[in-house]
Amino acid sequence: MATSISFEFFPPKTDVGAEKLIVVHQELQQLNPQYFSVTYGAGGSTRERTLSTIDALHGQGAPVAPHLSCIGDDKARIAELLDIYKAKGINRLVALRGDLPSGQVGLGELPYATDLVRFIRDHSGDYFHVEVAAYPEMHPQASSFDQDIERFAEKVRAGANAAITQFFFNTDSYFYFIDRIKQLGIDAPIIPGIMPITNASNLIRFADSTGAEIPRWIRKQLAAYGDDSASIRAFGHEVVVKLCQRLIEGGAPALHFYTMNQTEPTRQLVKDLGLA
What we know:
- The chain has helices at residues 15-29, 47-57, 75-88, 113-124, 145-157, 171-183, 200-210, 216-225, 229-249, 266-272, and strands at 4-9, 36-38, 64-69, 92-96, 129-134, 162-167, 190-194, 254-258.
- It is α/β, with parallel strands linked by helices.
């Protein structure tokens, strides 16, 4: 059976960006994804832009899955969003804790993703297919890997259907994570999050901010290319293709690509993997 794919977008900040995203969506739609997800800023800071992006993409092909974060938001606000999405016929969500907005003190009524998943189930029953986050290399704020595994298990027990991972480049970390959650009786699908490598400084910034590890050999090779963007893209493409191949061979149920609102290189990765 072919490995299914999905794509992530972020809400554009400008009208030009919004117009460009429509084109990117149409181009990636041709690859037959299972769904497109749309991110949601800290404390709902991109709420209106997320909603407008959802409206622009919904009904134009594959289903759209809004991200929904809970930290710093109250239950009434989240319930309103759930009702809006249900009224639109959207039945898939990515439920996250999210980042605390700058300058805000206190975590709000739903401080953790487990609380959000439980609230979604209490409010909407089984209407939504809910995906949560998984961290094969451990959440950057977790005190131990064991604690992080248990926190993840709690999200699934609260009602999550599946999970999307933080991006990673070490397949052993993914398969070890799968083994550990199976030991806890968790068999929810864990979908690897795939980050294309196109720009060394951007990749390092993302990794440093999220706790994702870039293996030393990748960092060294990227540094060796300096400003040679063509070589960086070619090297990055090869690295990510091999990463995805190992994941597929190892039984990963699907792949979720962080597109950064670009058609390429995600389209080339999908085609070279034979998943189009």
